[in-house]
Write a structure and sequence with these properties.
Layout (H helix, E strand, L loop, with lengths): L1 E4 L2 E8 L6 E5 L11 H9 L3 E5 L18 H9 L10 H14 L5 E6 L1 H12 L4 E7 L13 H8 L7 H15 L8 H14 L3 H13 L3 H4 L7 E6 L7 H10 L4 E5 L8 H23 L2
Parallel strand pairs: 3-4, 3-5, 5-6, 6-7, 7-8
Antiparallel strand pairs: 1-2, 2-4
Helix pairs in contact: 1-11, 2-8, 3-4, 5-6, 6-7
Length: 300
């Protein structure tokens, strides 16, 4: 369903029903709400939560920003590597306000804010700047954005630089599978058929590469988040795979180090994806953590 959030039309999925504590799920770069597997959502619902997930602006079925163009992405990337200010059509703070607007549209005062990858960065901003709305924070396979942290493995960077061989659905899916093979969880590999089915479903729902580029620039422009993280006061849980080839575990460790009182959990064999086995592990960490934070929040 569509809601108006922060002045934009945002696509939302709301599962579990009213009267329960709410978990807001925020997905990562270029990923749609369906990237949160239904099985993961169902585990959280069965644990007693109402689960809200949404397409971020410029992706999926939410409002796009094609009118803003993408600018010179290569030049902006060079500026980021040189430590210069990156220009972007919008910021991660704008995207945080979108997520808060989703809660407003649904009449939700507070929620457990859970984000993966770029979604973790957005979640961090919500927890820092809207403490009255944040019962707890869970940052998954994300980063503090601090300078000097390790980047993707060399082969992942090389793959990210390559373009698909063509523009057909089959060629785009094959290209994405080659990347996912490099960043998936080595302890829980998925078959090419499983990956292809998921990618095909996602692409047929929406395929918007220009939105991904603008979101990438928003990440590059978010250079003050390391200084923002110490402002977070709610309970915080940082989850990261020890085999993440895209966002190395050191990035999650640095996030936890900067958030007062946070707890860091390393997930053995987890990469930068959400296969069923990893979803079960994450849900088993998130549910009791959120229930404990809920109990703490309800005390007078």
């Amino acid at each position: 369903m569509k809601v108006t959030a922060n002045g934009l039309q945002i696509e939302v999925d709301d599962t579990g029903g009213e009267g329960r504590p709410v978990i807001l799920l925020i997905m990562g770069l270029g990923m749609q709400l369906v990237a949160w597997p239904n099985g993961f959502v169902q585990r959280l619902v069965e644990a007693g939560f109402r689960v809200v997930r949404h397409d971020n602006r410029d992706i999926g079925l939410s409002q796009g920003f094609d009118h803003a163009g993408t600018g010179n992405v290569v030049w902006q990337t060079i500026r980021h590597r040189l430590g210069l200010k990156v220009r972007s059509a919008y910021t991660l703070q704008d995207m945080a306000l979108d997520s808060l607007g989703v809660l407003d549209a649904l009449g939700i005062a507070r929620a457990h804010i859970v984000g993966a990858s770029m979604g973790g960065m957005i979640a961090q901003r919500i927890a820092a700047f809207a403490p009255q709305r944040s019962t707890s924070l869970v940052s998954i396979m994300s980063s503090s954005g601090a300078r000097g942290l390790p980047g993707p493995r060399r082969e992942v960077t090389a793959m990210l630089m390559r373009r698909p061989l063509g523009k057909s659905e089959a060629e785009l899916v094959a290209h994405s599978i080659r990347l996912l093979r490099l960043i998936q969880s080595p302890a829980y590999p998925q078959t090419d058929q499983e990956l292809a089915e998921r990618l095909t479903f996602s692409m047929r729902r929406s395929y918007h590469p220009a939105g991904l580029m603008r979101q990438m620039l928003a990440i590059g422009a978010d250079d003050e988040r390391p200084q923002v993280l110490p402002r977070i006061q709610c309970p915080a849980l940082v989850l990261h795979g020890d085999a993440d080839a895209l966002v190395p575990m050191a990035c999650g460790e640095d996030t936890a180090r900067r958030i007062p009182g946070s707890r860091f959990v390393s997930v053995p064999g987890m990469g930068h994806d959400l296969p069923p086995e990893v979803c079960a592990i994450l849900a088993n960490h998130i549910a009791p953590f959120a229930h404990a934070a809920e109990a703490r929040d309800s005390k007078p």
